[in-house]
Every structure is written in structure tokens, then in C-alpha cells.
Amino acid sequence: MSETCAPPGWDEAWSAARRAADPQALFLPVRISAAHRGAYHATSGADTAMVELRGRHYRAALDKRALPAVGDFCLVSGWDGAVAGAGSALIEHILPRRSLLVRRAAGTATAPQPLAANVDVALIVTSANSDLSAQRLDRYLELVRDGGIAPVVVISKIDLAADAEALLAEVAKLMPGVPVVATSAPAGLGLELVRAKVAPGRTAILLGSSGVGKSSLLSALTGGGQRTAPIRAHDERGRHTTTVRQLFSGEDGALWIDTPGMRELAAFNEGDVAVAFADVTELAARCRFADCQHRREPACAVAAAVAAGELSAARLASFHKLSQERARDRERADAAAWAAPEPPPARPAGRPFGGPSARSATSAAPRTATGKPSPGRPASRPGTRQPSRKRPG
Ligand SMILES: Nc1nc2c(ncn2[C@@H]2O[C@H](COP(=O)(O)OP(=O)(O)OP(=O)(O)O)[C@@H](O)[C@H]2O)c(=O)[nH]1
Ligand SMILES: [Mg+2]
Fold first, then answer.
1. Is residue 209 part of a domain?
2. Are 167 and 210 part of one and the same domain?
3. 272-324 pLDDT tens trace
4. Of 184, 228, 232, 258, which is best to mutate to test ligand 1, by the most ligand atoms within 8 angstroms of its C-beta?
5. Does 114 reside within a domain?
6. Same domain? 162 vs 56
7. Which of 66, 167, 173, 180 has its CA at a distance of 20 to 30 angstroms from the CA of residue 79?
């Protein structure tokens, strides 16, 4: 296919993946550009249309990670009809992903929810006025690293900071090894620094609480007009203005995915707390006990580092919080593995989002399958166990 009508972000490696999946080139490659409830928009580079998954693919899905996500490259049939407005094109293949951002779905214990696929850079946006939370940043960082994506922390609304330099230094200290950039959408500050992180053809996703200014930043970066709304005056929270995960392209060919502010945020997968907390793990290697919990154990190198001011107490608290969460996840997974399989859930209501083709895509979406979590190893509750394994020597 010619470069001019390739889906955004397409490259030689995707061409090879397409040849492997569809040697006779029967289907057209497109990229999922927006994920609605049970329905998707995709772009071929030239046109945009509705696409939907075949029923047998839904039924074969072990969990939602097998369903399309914004950013996925898919091979579809029936594209021309869909572009002409006659229903939706059918997804025949989802090409193997380079990265996948997954979180636990809001309101459920362990169901994984794919947020976006084939993302290269994640912009974790925190605003200079009121949003700074070490715990929240750590959670985003873990989510992003679990997904195999490079993180960048963006301090938005830097025009509102009383002391921008001090804030930058504080965030840099909280996030060792992660690039930190400050921006102001209305003043156009820091935009070039952000653009420099995302080369043409690469894909970045904007993550962060509602109201931190993700859509404003995206509009400033791309020259587009994403809808934004003022935060609430009484508590400075956002109004969940953006409701769809959607792909945009900048003039330089970089690609940006805007996302709704997340209410509940928990990384889902077998990712390792140790990766997100490499500094704690490194110190822990010097604790006397190999299974030290870094609470009140003797000769704990982590506690010593906190006492010496080398590690912040807030960072250790984040580490404990995430470790506990992981332990609870493992306990839930163990319990679920023993439970009888549940009956399939009723088909989701599937809100139409405009146009007859959207309705047909939603109503045609069969139920989403749930998968049984893989059994994890039983975990003892952190903080309740005494250290036992003294290091040799
Ligand atoms: N002073 C200032 N205000 C900003 C900046 N960026 C965004 N805002 C304002 O913050 C409010 C929220 O911005 P949005 O871009 O809608 O925030 P969002 O993160 O996309 O919010 P959701 O879509 O709800 O997740 C709007 O009133 C913006 O004008 C900035 O850099 N400086
Ligand atoms: Mg928004």
C-alpha cells in the first residue's frame, strides 16, 4: 500500500505483521482512532469509519485485553461500505501489539481494561495548582511501565505555580530517572519540550486526573480544538469533560491520544513493583533479612535511608501501598481461581454515540467475555509477618 493512505503510525514492521497475518492482502489495514462503549472508529489514513469485532472474536476473547483498543492496528473487511455510511467494517485481525496500557476496570476487583495499544510515550499530567500527589504519580508510573511504555511527567498549568522551579525540583525528586517537563497551554510554554519527546510517527498518550488540562495541552500541541471545561471552583476537580479515548495527529506527524480523567487507577498485570521502585529495591538488597518488609525490622537499609534523608518517607509510603495492593490482588486471584465459573454477564447497555452506524455497531456487539484470572502464588499480608530469611554471610 502507498504511504499516502497508510494508517497513522504505520511503518515497515507493521507491513511485515500485515503480510504474516494476511499473506494475500485480502483485508485493509486501519488504526482504531476512538474507542466508545462497545463500538470503535478507525482510520485508514484517508478515511474514518465505524468498525466492529466479529461475534466469534468476542466469544473467543478470554478477557477484555483481547478486544480492540484505541491505537490498535487492525485488518478489516467491508471498509468502503462503512466509509459510505453503510454500517461498520468488520475487524478480521488485530495485529500483534508493541505495547498495551491496561488498568483494572473501575468498580471491579481485578477485571483488566485495556486503555490503549501501540503507544510509545505516556505523558503523565499533573497540574501545578492542586493536583500533585506522590502516590498518584507512582501509580501512573507503574501502570505505564507495566505497559512497556516510556513515561514523561508533565506539570501542566505552570503559569499558576507560585514557584515553578521549586515545583519542578520537587517532582523530579519524587520521580527519579523520569523526564519532567512543565507546560502552560494558554501561554504556549513547554510545548516544544513535549513535542521533542514524541518523534513523527510515534504515539503518545495523555494520562491524568480530570481537569489537569490534558485536552487543553493536546489542542495546544496539535492546533486542534478538543473540548475543555473549567474545573469546579469549590474543590478544583475536573468535570470529566473528555469521555472518549481518541487519537489525534499533530502537524509534524506525531500522534496523540487524549483520554478521560481516570476515577480509579490501578495497574493490572503481573508487573513488578520492583521496576517502579528500583531505588527501594536497590536499598532493600542491603537489608539484613532477605524478606524484610521495611517496617520495623532490625538492620533495615531502607529505613536507614529514610532516616538519613536519602529516601523520602512519602516514597516509601507509596511503595508500601502498592506492595499491599499487589498482595491483595494475588489473594483475590487465588480466591477467584478456586471459585466456580460465573454465568456470562448480560450484554452491556452500549450507549449510542451518534449516527445510525454507531447504533448498529453498538447493538451488534455481543457480550464481552470475562476471563478467569490466572492463579497467583498465595501471599502473606505485608506487615503481619516477621522476617525469617537471614541473608547468608
Ligand atoms: N491557567 C491554566 N489553565 C489551564 C491550563 N491547561 C488547562 N487549563 C484549564 O483547566 C481546565 C480543564 O482543562 P481540560 O483540558 O478540560 O482538562 P482535562 O484534563 O482534559 O479534563 P477531562 O477531560 O475532564 O479529563 C480548563 O478550564 C482549561 O482552560 C494551563 O496550562 N494553564
Ligand atoms: Mg479532556
1. yes
2. yes
3. 566 667 778 788 888 888 788 899 889 999 999 999 988 888 888 888 887 88
4. 228
5. yes
6. no
7. 66
- Ligand at shortest distance from the CA of 217: 1
Scored b (16 or more CB within 10 A) or e, 348-365 reads: eebebbeeebbbbbbebb
* 246 and 172 together in one domain: yes
Give the mean pLDDT of 115-128. 95
184 CA distance to ligand 1 centroid (A)? 10
Atom of ligand 1 nearest to the CA of 227: 16
Nearest atom in ligand 1 to the alpha carbon of residue 185 is 31
Q: For residues 359 and 59, give the distance between their C-alpha atoms in angstroms, rounded to a whole number.
A: 20
For residue 215, report the distance from its CA to the centre of ligand 2, in Å. 4
pTM: 0.70
- Ligand 1 pocket, mutate which of 157, 181, 216 (most atoms under 8 A from CB): 216
pLDDT, one tens digit per residue, over 213-245 is: 999 999 999 887 666 666 655 555 666 677 788
Please give the Cα distance from 74 to 18 (Å, whole number): 9
Helix (H, G, I), strand (E, B) or coil at 120: coil
Rounded distance between C-alpha atoms, residue 105 and residue 266, angstroms: 8
CATH (domain of 66): 2.40.50.140
The answer to whether residues 279 and 331 belong to one domain is yes
Same domain? 243 vs 295: no
- The ligand whose atoms approach the alpha carbon of 155 most closely is 1
Minimum mean pLDDT among 45-59, 158-172, 221-235, 368-382: which range? 368-382
Domain with 205, as residue range(s), is: 100-258
Ligand 2 centre and the CA of 152: distance in Å?
Answer: 18
Contact 318, 355 (CB under 8 A): no
Q: What is the tally of structural domains in the chain? A: 3
**How many angstroms separate the CA atoms of 153 and 93, rounded?**
34
Q: Which of 179, 175, 193, 184 lies closest to 133 in space, CA to CA? A: 175
CATH for 134: 3.40.50.300
Domain membership flag for residue 236: yes
How much distance in Å is there from the Cα of 294 to the middle of ligand 2? Answer: 39
| Residues within 5 Å of ion ligand 2, judged at the Cβ atom | 214-215, 241-242
- Which residues line the pocket of ligand 1, CB cutoff 6 A? 156-157, 159-160, 184-186, 208, 210-216, 228-231, 238-242, 260-261
**104 and 243 share one domain:** yes
